[in-house]
Design a protein that fits this description.
Number of strands: 9
CATH superfamily of the largest domain: Alkaline Phosphatase, subunit A
Distance between the termini: 16 Å
Strand order of the largest sheet: 6-7-8-9
CATH topology of the largest domain: Alkaline Phosphatase, subunit A
Order of helices and strands: HHHEEHEHHEHEHHEEEEH
Structural class: alpha/beta
CATH architecture of the largest domain: 3-Layer(aba) Sandwich
CATH class of the largest domain: Alpha Beta
Shape: globular
Radius of gyration: 21 Å
Number of helices: 10
Largest sheet: 4 strands, antiparallel
Length: about 325
């Protein structure tokens, strides 16, 4: 296929839908052979439910017993209630993937929520975003309340995370500035919460390096399951282990990727990032940026020209990381 062939363009043309489906399978083919937290849970007797956002093909092919679409949370919580009831009936432990489209756009929370923030926020865009956050919080509360009603709350581990940050565009509702799809802190530094009554002591840590790659090993170990050896993440319940981590790595890609370049790690790349202590290097295709997060937590002052030695040091760490983590299952891309 020629230059500019991307999956959104394929999906937008009904005549190309068969090709879009074929390319979608190619995009997720590597997952068939990758280690899977969900499959490990399923293999160990857990009932598994997928709800909301899921871009990896048919969830039933990836360890889920059931799946429910984008209406979860915004329209109903009933599929989760029914799933929990059935798991209880079967005397099964369960895993719920609750990926509600909140506070994701459209920022159209009910007026009862929007009006709470209308006069508090600096602009309408921010008020509507805050209202969507409140809507998310409300649905999480509904899930917690249901589990408490069923006497399941105390024995349930809750993990909350987000796939990107968001700063509302003050001039456009449901849009953002310098956050989503950007390697800046407002885009990649997102919260991870863990709650497990009587098992996790409440605390807040704003300095220890953590990553979403830690979530799967944490859940598996909490369930008494040994994570696949290919999972390099750490157990988030153990601060003393996390404290020994020196650095984390991030890559940021365009969401509308070229389907004819799936085997090229540099195709559609926005940037790669390494954070080593308080030093942060952003490697974009057109240049390198260096930041001191201790004194510049919003990464606004580029120090690359002032500290070439540190840039070279962090660049070497990034290159080593890329060599250690190549495409793991290239054969799946050649089907």
């Amino acid at each position: 296929m020629g230059e500019g062939v991307d999956h959104l363009r394929l999906r937008a043309n009904k005549k190309l839908w068969p090709l879009a489906q074929e390319q979608s399978k190619a995009m997720t083919a590597t997952l068939e052979h990758a280690p899977s937290m969900v499959k490990q849970l399923q293999d160990n007797g857990y009932a598994t439910l997928q709800t909301g956002k899921w871009w990896e093909g048919d969830p039933l092919d990836h360890g889920f017993d059931e799946g429910f679409g984008h209406g979860i949370g915004r329209k109903t919580m009933e599929p989760i209630h029914n799933f929990v009831d059935q798991a209880q009936k079967n005397e099964q432990p369960f895993f719920i993937w609750y990926a509600v489209f909140l506070p994701h756009t459209p920022h159209n929370a009910p007026d009862r929520l929007y009006l709470k923030y209308k006069d508090l926020a600096p602009d309408e865009s921010t008020a509507r975003y805050w209202a969507n956050v409140a809507w998310l919080d409300e649905t999480c509360g509904q899930l917690v309340d249901y589990l408490k009603e069923k006497n399941l709350y105390d024995n349930t581990l809750f993990v909350f995370t987000a796939d990107n940050g968001w700063r509302p565009d003050p001039n456009k509702v449901s849009w953002y500035v310098r956050s989503k799809k950007e390697p800046v802190e407002a885009g990649i530094r997102t919260p991870i919460f863990l709650t497990h009554k009587n098992k996790i002591v409440p605390r807040r840590d704003k300095e220890t390096l953590a990553s979403n790659i830690d979530i799967a090993p944490t859940i598996l170990q909490a369930c008494g399951i040994k994570p696949d050896k290919a999972m390099s993440g750490l157990d988030l319940r153990k601060p003393e282990v996390l404290a020994k981590r020196d650095r984390i790595f991030v890559d940021v890609y365009w969401d509308n990727i070229r389907v004819d370049a799936l085997g090229d790690l540099d195709s559609d790349l926005i940037a790669r990032v390494v954070i080593d202590g308080w030093d942060k290097l952003i490697a974009r295709p057109d240049g390198l940026e260096l930041y001191d997060l201790k004194n510049d937590p919003d990464d606004r002052t580029d120090l690359a020209e002032q500290n070439h030695e540190k840039v070279e040091e962090l660049s070497a760490l990034m290159n080593d990381w890329l060599e250690e983590t190549p495409i793991i299952f290239p054969h799946a891309l050649q089907r």
